[in-house]
Amino acid sequence: MRISPTLPFPALLLGLALLGAGCRTAPTAKPAPPSRDIATEYDLIYAIAHGRMSTAPTPFLVATAKTLRPPPGAAALDIGGGAGRNSFYLARQGYSVTDLDLSHIGLDLARQQAAAERLPVATVAQDVNSFDFGQNRWDLIALIDFPFPYQALLPKIAAGLKPGGVVVIQAVAVGEPVSESPDHLLHYTYMDRRDLTAPFAGFAILHDHQGEQPTVWGVKALMLRFAARKPQ
After folding, report:
1. Which residues constitute the domain of residue 187?
2. How far is 97 from 199, CA to CA, in rounded Å?
3. DSSP assignments along 150-211, one per residue
4. pTM of the model
5. Considering its fold, how many domains does the chain have in total?
6. Which burial class, exposed, middle or buried, applies to 144 when counting CB atoms under 10 A from its CB (0-12, 13-18, 19+)?
7. Which of 17, 77, 97, 120 is the least crowded, having the fewest Cβ atoms under 10 Å away?
């Protein structure tokens, strides 16, 4: 991940604090911490950085959602949605959104904003690995900048989408230089495009691109962007 030398020092600190965009630990790192430690880490990030974090939705999600026409009562799942910037956008487009995250502080912020705008956003504080995606339940599932092991989630996402439902994925891609999280605690995982082939076999590909792009953290990274529609 390349940090601009012209980035202001406070922004640089914030960028380091928010390297969950896709930094992973070096090969000698210890096993990943339990979910409670991850929740605590992100609680601290939201508590310290709230007010300085971008509230704008992810441009790739916006570009994809603009091409869709959600049916009445459409349901969306925002995996790792945190304080809700993408959940709010989807709710304004007509989806009833579930914001799934481990951070209670992030979800508290999301609930407050959703209540203030009267947006249909529900929050679930749960480890995504134990969450029940269901079968044919969701019209859209967003996996945006999810920095942890993701492979086991992909078949659940595919099964959980309704026929005609869309998955939207953005992640830092394999090939980005390896680095540690600044506190040496969190362990991050880059995404390999090849991992998407089997779970989404038969899906209609709407977007499939990998290249260096700016991120919300004020840095550039090798980003993978993928969107596909489940067959009817």
Report:
1. 2-229
2. 23
3. -TTHHHHHHHHEEEEEEEEEEEEBBTBPPB--TTS-----PBPGGGGTTTTTTPEEEEEEEE
4. 0.80
5. 1
6. buried
7. 120
Query: Which is nearest to 168 in space by CA: 140, 203, 195?
Result: 140
How many other CB atoms are found less than 10 A from the CB of residue 55?
Answer: 14
Residue type, 163: P
What is d(CA 114, CA 20) in angstroms, rounded to the nearest whole number?
A: 24
Structure tokens at 201: 């076999």
Contact between residue 187 and residue 32 where contact means Cβ atoms under 8 Å apart: yes
**CATH no. for residue 14?**
3.40.50.150
Helix, strand, or coil here: 123?
Answer: strand
Please state, in angstroms and as integers, the Cα–Cα distance from residue 149 to each residue in 22, 48, 94, following that order. 11, 26, 30
- Report the distance separating Cα 220 and Cα 21, nearest Å: 10
- pLDDT per position as a tens digit, 83-113: 999 999 999 999 999 999 988 888 999 999 9
Residue 56: how many other CB atoms lie within 10 Å: 11
Phi, psi of 113, rounded to the nearest 5 degrees: -70, -40
Q: How many residues does the chain have?
A: 232
For 106, the token pair is 């992030």
Q: What is the dihedral of CA 231, 191, 224, 73, to 10 degrees?
A: 40
